[in-house]
Hints:
7-stranded mixed β-sheet; 1 helix; 4-stranded antiparallel β-sheet
Amino acid sequence: QVQLVESGGGLVQAGGSLRLSCAASGRTFTNYVMAWFRQAPGKEREFVAAITWSGNRRYSQEVVKGRFTISRDNAKNTVYLQMNSLKPEDTAVYYCAVDEYKGLLRTNSYDFWGQGTQVTVSS
């Protein structure tokens, strides 16, 4: 079993920044992908960004628009999401996800999920 714990969410004014963290524990993977998703009230979960063990990245440009950066520390089994220039529409619960690498940086079909961390951006 893989356990994921997100942290770093909170309340921030528009234009501000937050850095989310997700620490993985339990089962280890030889090669795995860690990703961020988000879900706003009344909307379906959407993909934000993903990163492989080797550092290959994929972003949802529609969501990120050049404002977010995903990174990871393999020694700590931790993935980060640096979010800058936040907007009210970024308000959502942000979820960490992990899966064994299957050849693609998928925007869905992840096997393991955290409980989420709330991000609220005020006008």
